[in-house]
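Notes, p. 3: input format for complexes.
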Amino acid sequence: MGSRGSESGAAIALRGVHKRYSAPDGVIEALAPIDLEIAEGSFVALVGPSGCGKSTLLRIVAGLEPPSGGEVVVRDRARMAYVFQDAHLLPWRTLAGNVALPLELRGEPRSRIDAQVAEALAAVELSGFADSYPAALSGGMRMRASIARALVTKPRLLLMDEPFGALDEITRNRLDERLLALFGAQRFTVLFVTHGIFEATFLAERAIVMSRRPGRVVHDAPSALVGERTAELRGEAAFAREAHELARALERGSR
Amino acid sequence: MGSRGSESGAAIALRGVHKRYSAPDGVIEALAPIDLEIAEGSFVALVGPSGCGKSTLLRIVAGLEPPSGGEVVVRDRARMAYVFQDAHLLPWRTLAGNVALPLELRGEPRSRIDAQVAEALAAVELSGFADSYPAALSGGMRMRASIARALVTKPRLLLMDEPFGALDEITRNRLDERLLALFGAQRFTVLFVTHGIFEATFLAERAIVMSRRPGRVVHDAPSALVGERTAELRGEAAFAREAHELARALERGSR
Amino acid sequence: RRASAPSGKLRVQLDWVPEPEFGGLYEARASGAFAREGLEVELVGGGPSTPVVQLVASGGADLGVVAGEELVVARARGVDLVAIYATYQSSPQGIMVHASRGLRRLEELEGGSLALDTGAPFGAFVQAKFPLSKVTIVSTDGGVAKFLSDQRHAQQCFVTSEPVAAKQAGSDPQVFTAKSLGFDSYANVVVARGEALRGGGDRARAMVRALQAGWRGYLSSPARANAQMASLNRAMDAATFAQVAEAQRPLVESDDTRALGLGAMRAGRWKALIDQLVAVKIIGADAAPKPEACFVFAT
Amino acid sequence: MSAKGSRLAGLLLPPAIGLLVLLAAFELVARLFFAREAYLLPPPSAIAKAAWQERALLASATLSTGRAAALGFVASGALGVLFAIVLASSRLLERALYPYAIALQTVPIVAIAPLLVVWLGVGPKSVVASAFIVSVFPVVTNTLAGIRAVDPALRDLFRLYGARRFAVLTKLELPHATPSVAVGLRVAAGLAVIGAIVGELVAGFAEHDPGLGIVVMTAYRQLRTDLLFAAVACSAALGIALFSIVSLGAWLWLRRWYSGAR
Amino acid sequence: MSAKGSRLAGLLLPPAIGLLVLLAAFELVARLFFAREAYLLPPPSAIAKAAWQERALLASATLSTGRAAALGFVASGALGVLFAIVLASSRLLERALYPYAIALQTVPIVAIAPLLVVWLGVGPKSVVASAFIVSVFPVVTNTLAGIRAVDPALRDLFRLYGARRFAVLTKLELPHATPSVAVGLRVAAGLAVIGAIVGELVAGFAEHDPGLGIVVMTAYRQLRTDLLFAAVACSAALGIALFSIVSLGAWLWLRRWYSGAR
Ligand SMILES: Nc1ncnc2c1ncn2[C@@H]1O[C@H](COP(=O)(O)OP(=O)(O)OP(=O)(O)O)[C@@H](O)[C@H]1O
Ligand SMILES: Nc1ncnc2c1ncn2[C@@H]1O[C@H](COP(=O)(O)OP(=O)(O)OP(=O)(O)O)[C@@H](O)[C@H]1O
Ligand SMILES: [Mg+2]
Ligand SMILES: [Mg+2]
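Output follows (1333 residues plus magnesium ion):
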């Protein structure tokens, strides 16, 4: 386990990774042994029933949780960003202060921070709230701030745990598109946990579906959709087919 | 403002209710004056862009937040349940303990509590986790526990703030159907904030769409869907039309 | 690592706040007696918990004021302190009882409680010499409130202090002095490090002369020194200063002082004290200091 | 080694090593800098020797003081939490009374010793009262802060379900405040010991069943510095014992759900 | 009344009324039960009279003690937080040292008086040191608890972005612990005052002003109970002043984001 790149050039490689938690009554098998490679510069969606181990998998990739066994190889861990399932903002900092945090931690000079923060806040449509404290924001606004905090670092590897779950469809679609644009321009690697089948279909080049706990991979296929992903895509038949495919896989995994 | 029933027999009646928050730089107009009546035994969905004031409206109805002006009349406030946007479980209680809380507060005898708690946990598919502490659960599981805590009271008025936002589509659909079944049997009043257009379409007899902050009502129409709401409904053309209608209204409100 | 007086200046550590028991010191300073002897002296007030013995022994002060029994205990523990001047010729301590109990001797004390200064040799002496029946020994808090409110309470006292306060409050204190009980000790003893006295101890001799002059002056006219001390210790009023100054006179003057001069000491009396402390087991017989080593300048 | 055994070792070894290191440093300092002034700071070896010689006295004194400190401590815990609950029940009451609770802490025990003695008599009761007075304030302050810090959303939840004041207290405020109460009790542990010692000096028995305060004072007056420090070590041990009980209790109680539990 | 004026009144009125009620109760008790024993508990009116007569003495004594208490308090705040930071840096270090920090609190000042005055001299420095020793432990304990209670998810966040230890400390642990530090300082406020008073009994006073400890002691010995209680009131006022400064500071600093701020 380490951050040296794998020989295959994959951004993330898991080999036999599994996870057990000890609970009051015995152990909880959260992840069954998983083998997974994620190519550099790919956009992968991770779908699965609630409690199946998606967050656990992400935390293991990020190095926040040691696996109970197996090997984890992650390239570019130094330039990784993570959007947690909850916003987890620092309550004593304003939104701008929260978004600036990763840059400060990286030692970026003050002068350059401000512009980047403003840009990231604009990307999640929170420009007017730079000086508000988290307590004075709606749930969706807090979540968006935490997305801005991840984007501001211009990561090479982006791990997102249901980032848009608390957002209305319109805002969500808009952010989906903005994320794709960013992805197109910078070609970082994205591992994206979502509950939205349409969202997964729209965003991902490859979708992975996990089974109920203990989580196994029950479906792993590249997207059949070709060409640019624009808003119009959502209306096309191929999109519907692809989404249907995914929904069936999820249904299988949820049984 | 009080809990006496309105003359019209509405479960909830708002007249000119608006809300201002004081912020560091001036005031934030969260809700523009709103007039609204919600009939007893109806299922109303509330949709709107992030930060538009949906949670604020729900809190005002619940009596958790005083409106800055206007009149609020709520019948059956004594038999009301509320699912917050975040799970807000008591970390020192097990899931079963958390779900039992409202019954304990109501003075229900211990003997009757246990069965009701088990039933509510089963309804949200958490039967195996009665003795787990919230910290050992996934985000979606915590949210489901908080739904169980609301359902266990057998409320006459149910306020739900994006209860299923953190759940995968399959689980969500299953819970949607279960909620509808409950609703069909007991005919309580539901005010349901959601980001899912399909969810709103599937569930609600009436959908209200709010505009961006300060929140106004931009769309308020009864559902054109008739007959029983079964899983098959989601495949029908009428359903798609209805959803499209709602999506357009939301788009209008988001501008 | 330790605070010390600048060379030339002598620092005297008192074991209490400025009160009449230090009258001679302040008078010597005010009258210029120190200066006439070529001494520059700093008087440092203390509190009830000031560790004078340790301060002098470790060089934090050049001279200190302690009770005679404290000096003996210190020497028994291997601390080389030597007395140069005994201000009080006998201990000011005593046992105070209510006169209404009609006691002629302390042995008759029965029942009730007796407050003793915890761990102090005088208290140990009283306990050892007088096997008081059914008397509860408690620790004293230094005040007289319990004495006033409890007729069956007795307590250790300084004859110049507690009985005065009790009388002022309308009570009827009767005092058995330490001396009358057989506890024979010098008090208010000025001590110095033994090493400082080797090689003649000229400055110490000069100190003794200045102290005698100071005390002579204070005994004849305490007003000036009292005023000075009162300006430092403003919690004690002028009347009390005068009263105490008068009350302590018999302690300062004795047959010995009339014969040998103020502050005088005799080896025989130190021996008596040492024997008493050995007898009540505060010091071991093997560790008992020699009487002659306890003091210099019998004058 | 079994998992349980190694866990226990992990729990007990560090403080044991810490103690050894502290003692070694202490011994070194004492021997190097206070060789000729053992009356100021005797080396631990000398202290240990004195402690062994006077073990009977120290044991009974520790027991006596320990009893009073423990009782005062328990009273502080119970009444401190109670008082905090009263203050927490209204912002007005808190503003009106809380500042004056601090007076308790700043009053030198000697100043109220006569009152104590008149009300409670010379002896254990007054000593317990002194331990209580000295140690109650941190319990009040920490409990109050813990209650005040309850998440407003959880308060909303209770309000929503029509919880009575008493239910809010027992099912929300007190459980949430337990970590804070534990912190207050940790501070109170040491204070109860020093409170008992000070109490003994102004209102305790000197003769039968003397406590550590009496031993400390006696050793101090008679310049038996080794015994003095032995007694001080006993009082520290008492404080550490109370502290450890609180810590253990808090850990057993909180570890299931509180991430800050140790 | 302006909004600001009425808010100020709301802030100051309750404690003022609280004081009046307490004083009235005190007067009643004193007059009813201690009429013939004013030397035990004089009524506030008599105390006030004595305070007025001795106002010069009390003012200078309060100033003298206040200075030492404030310095000791500041030292406790600074060093206490520092020590807590060191302990928080490793579970091992905490286990090894934390229990022994409590020894500081249980040691009677008189036992270490010789060390204090030999090192620091008879005078203000020893008084400050005493105030520090008596008041530092609650700061350590509360700060440590505050740091330990940081949300593990936020720690994850910092770890993720490669935060150095120092950044975790200054940007996460200390901001999160501020409410706890404030609680520790509230407790330390009163302890610093009593620590200074006890220290004065050790250090006495040289040519500088006698502090409240000396006034308490002499007044007590001379049965001037009214002056004694006046001095006690002054010491309580000092404690309340320090306490209020902490509370005000905490409120100004925390009110923007901390729901438990008052
Ligand atoms: N700290 C823990 N201790 C014990 N069990 C845990 C812990 N964290 C997670 N689990 C268990 O591991 C399983 C997987 O949790 P995880 O958070 O990865 O699920 P998830 O797929 O992210 O679910 P969701 O979609 O609801 O967020 C859950 O069943 C949960 O009970
Ligand atoms: N305590 C508060 N103080 C100041 N402003 C607040 C406060 N609570 C909410 N607001 C503001 O009120 C507006 C509405 O918030 P609300 O939580 O009702 O939004 P919402 O519609 O529920 O959004 P979301 O879908 O993101 O949860 C937001 O813009 C927010 O900034
Ligand atoms: Mg998750
Ligand atoms: Mg909301």
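Residues 89-154 of chain B form one domain.
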